[in-house]
Amino acid sequence: MKRAALAVAVLGLAGVAFAAYAVWKTFPRESGEVRIAGHAAPISIEIDAHGVPTIRARSIPDAMFGLGYVHAKDRLWQMEFQRRVGAGRLAEILGRNLIPADSFLRTVGFRRAAVASWKSLSPEARRLMEAYARGVNAFLESSDARPIEFRLLRVSPEPWRAVDSLAWGKMMAWDLAGNARDEIRLARFARAVGAERARELLPVAASEPTIVTDEDWRGGSAPATLPPAADLWLPAASWATLARSFDSLSPLGFGGEDLGSNSWVLAGSRTASGRPILANDPHLGLRVPSVWYLASLEAPGYSASGATLPGLPGVIIGHNSRIAWGLTSLEPDVQDLFVEDVDPGDPSRYRHRGEWRSFESRTETIAVRGGRDESVTIRASVHGPVVSGVLDGAHALGGAVALRWTGLDDGDRTPEAFFAIGTARNWIEFLAGARLLGGPPQNLIYADVEGHIGYTASGSMPIRPRADGRLPVSGAGPDDWSGTVSFDDLPRVLDPPRGYIVAANNRVASDAYPNSFGLEWAEPYRARRITSRILERPKLNADDVAAIQLDRRSLQADELLPLLLDTVPGDAASRDALERLRRWNREMSPDSSAASIYAAWFVELAKMPQDELKDIPRGRTRGRFLIQALSTNSAWCDDVRTPWVETCAVFKAATLKDAVASLTFAFGPDPAAWRWQRLHHARFPHDVFDKVRGLRRLFDLEAGQGGDGSTVNVGAFRQDGSFDMTDGPSYRQVVDLADPSRARFMFPPGQSGNVFDGRYRDLLPEWRAGTMFELGSGTPVKTLVLAP
Questions:
Q1: Are 473 and 336 in contact (CB under 8 A)?
Q2: Which helix (DSSP H) or strand (DSSP E) does residue 774 occupy?
Q3: Predicted confidence (pLDDT) per residue in 708-753, tens digit
Q4: Which residues contact 276 (CB under 8 A, 6 or more apart)?
Q5: Rounded distance between C-alpha atoms, residue 744 and residue 567, angstroms
Q6: How far, in Å, CA of 417 to CA of 611, rounded?
Q7: Which terminus of the chain faces fewer neighbouring Cβ atoms within 10 Å, N or C?
Q8: CA angle (165 as vertex; 772, 747 as ends), nearest 5
Q9: Is pLDDT of 575 > 80?
Q10: Distance between CA atoms of residues 439 and 169, nearest Å
Q11: What is the dihedral of CA 223, 225, 231, 234, to 10 degrees?
Q12: Cβ–Cβ contacts within 10 Å for residue 300, how many?
């Protein structure tokens, strides 16, 4: 017995030792000197308490080498996974369930587009991207530390290639371009309820405020109008099948409907320092690790700090010693679906401009872990890849649906744009960089130490001869794009007399502007609230600007709630809830029970059109639809499944009762327990292990949160009853140009991608509290020198 007990103890200690060794092997070296090849001179990497590096190099290529090294050091699994997404190589490590996703990724052709873009880059840009790739590979060759994901999945990282960076850039562009999905949805709505009512379901956002005024630019005619529903050819069942292909990426974290951003810049006339202040907080999918990685790069001719993207070289959002810049999505319509006229007698041909053409065709092989390789035949027309070909049962579509997307165009020099912006010293040089940006189209805001502020739209945006891009069109030819809008014709403004510029995914310009960007603007609530906060005081400092980023006043509630307060409650609990809403200040604060009541009621109200849509997924019901329906006592309030007609008054009472019942079920009958942060959680899922029971608790993170989709401190929530917040402020920066070196930053949940590292999650409480920090402030905690 003693021997058996001893054996068990020894085995237990051995297991503990092995586990400790496995954890220890996930931590790379962060101090001392490492001798590696691939760079010209010593590179110093100073690491602060948050794990943020300051990279000091003697040349810009060596600085990019250092960035590649630290990206690999801290985010290697993230980079490996992203590389595989861009190449459509997920089934190779995750099994046959990922074949549909790989088929879609291969069909769209992100990596093929990246290879084409590589040829368009200047020699200097290619040199910098290759230096970055050498830095990644130098880490792989010099360190055997690997994140635990590699061991758990039994995967080894491959050498990094410059085109891998470009492919991930294409995926980021896709993440911000959901027009094809919206076309399918609107087409299906039109089939179900008619074109006019479909427009009501997806109303165009309010026309004010715009980022630039009519005085800021000169322009002419209004955009084209929505084509009639008769322009739809495919049966409803086919649209349902096609829609699922665009949803196939949802487990990977792409295609959210609430992605957005805030940015604004104040002239010195409106600041306490007398110099501009620039703020930016892009809203992207929340994930762990973050899409962003903070860094400072110092080299002759390049001194930039801010947000970088693991897998890509350069600072994407931030400042140098002369200028600061920020980004928000321009919300452009850069995708169209073309229904090709296929020859019934020869499906390899389609008619375009009166002539029969042959589809381009190629076959790709998908390696499958634990199974046989799969072959995928990919077709393309003159408009782009035939996306219906990636689906099971695609032969039932009755045609071929091709995707036209600016992100697949040759000549994309977007990475080069950020190199140029990072080294710009003034407005002219900044515009020279912005000119190179292809996709995703962005609102770029600008400030410099000389006191100038500016804005420019950027990116490649199509010119449509007839349609407005909201519905699929015929591939016959008349609806082909006639080109893209020239950069010189995009709206921009320098030093507007009002002394501020706000860009929060609202309309860029009025309908008088001659070129159409599309009609899928975000609601104007965030832009209006930011503007009103700016105008509250004559002079603002950096603390004031940071406080605006944390604002949780819901202007949507200001519009919607008055339409609800006349509801006749059906029971005592509903009556009490209604009284709490009457006293509510419309702040979606974490501890507010009224915010929970409002959100739960909104979710019930959002079910309004489902009875008529039947089995068609409605996606996110838009607040503007509810406001318009309730303000007009619309027939949408009627449940067509019942033999009587329900008015909006009846609908409101019923949905309030359901909302209160759901809160009571979750938290008990006392409304004091219905705090918003208990119901509303910001979720940070791991890219793979979020779906694995047992590992989810280790890798995923979450935190109770305030806000909603309309607040500046955005907190959009799912309408499926979970109230999960899956998108949000992925990064915050505030730069006072009086001293750019004192810029403030924050991003969740942490700098490290190693689940065993405290820096995997250390910034989550600070992000939630709204605090910020300076990069590289104080004495470095560790210094690593890369010696040639």
A1: yes
A2: strand 773-774
A3: 999 999 999 999 999 999 999 999 999 999 999 999 999 999 999 9
A4: 265, 266, 267, 268, 324, 447, 448, 451, 452, 453, 736, 737
A5: 46
A6: 48
A7: N
A8: 10
A9: yes
A10: 9
A11: 70
A12: 10
Q: Output the six-digit token pair for 488.
A: 């010189």
Tokens of 273: 């320092």
Comparing CA positions, the residue from 481, 437, 435 lying closest to residue 462 is 481
Instruction: Tell the burial category of 721 from Cβ atoms under 10 Å away from its Cβ (0-12, 13-18, 19+).
Output: exposed
Report which of 260, 311, 307, 418 is spatially closest to residue 747, judged by C-alpha positions: 307
Amino acid identity of residue 317, one-letter, is: I
- pLDDT classification of 243: cutoffs 50, 70, 90: low
What is the full DSSP assignment across 322-381? Answer: SEEEEEEE-----EEEEEEEEETTEEEEEEETTEEEEPEEEEEEE--TTS--EEEEEEEE
Beta-bridge mates of residue 746: 732
Predicted TM-score (pTM) of the model is 0.92
Higher-pLDDT residue of 635 and 190 is 635
Higher pLDDT, 332 or 670: 670
3-class SS of residue 204 = coil
pLDDT (0 to 100) of residue 21 = 59
Helices (H), 633-760: 648-667, 676-679, 696-699
Whether the CB-CB separation of 609 and 683 falls below 8 Å is answered with no
How confident is the model over 407-437, as pLDDT tens digits? Answer: 999 889 998 999 999 999 999 999 999 999 9
* CA dist., res. 478 & res. 466, Å (int): 8
pLDDT tens-digit readout, 133-142: 999 999 999 9
pLDDT, tens only, 64-94? 999 999 999 999 999 999 999 999 999 999 9
Per-residue pLDDT band for 595 (boundaries 50, 70, 90) equals very high
Q: Of 134, 129, 247, which is closest to residue 181 (Cα–Cα)?
A: 247
Task: Kindly state the helix (H) or strand (E) to which residue 305 belongs, with its residue range.
Answer: strand 302-308
Rg (CA), the chain: 27
CA dist 749 → 72, 289, 702, 763 (Å): 18, 7, 9, 5
SS3 404: strand
| pLDDT of amino acid 16 | 53
Average pLDDT, the chain: 89
Average pLDDT for residues 130-151, to the nearest whole number? 96
pLDDT of residue 220: 33
For 44, counting Cβ atoms within 10 Å of its Cβ (0-12 exposed, 13-18 middle, 19+ buried), the class is middle
Q: How many residues belong to the chain?
A: 788
Question: Per the structure block, which two tokens stand in for 565?
Answer: 């307060």
What is the enclosing helix (H) or strand (E) of 167? helix 162-175
Alpha carbon 542 to its chain centroid, in Å, reads 26
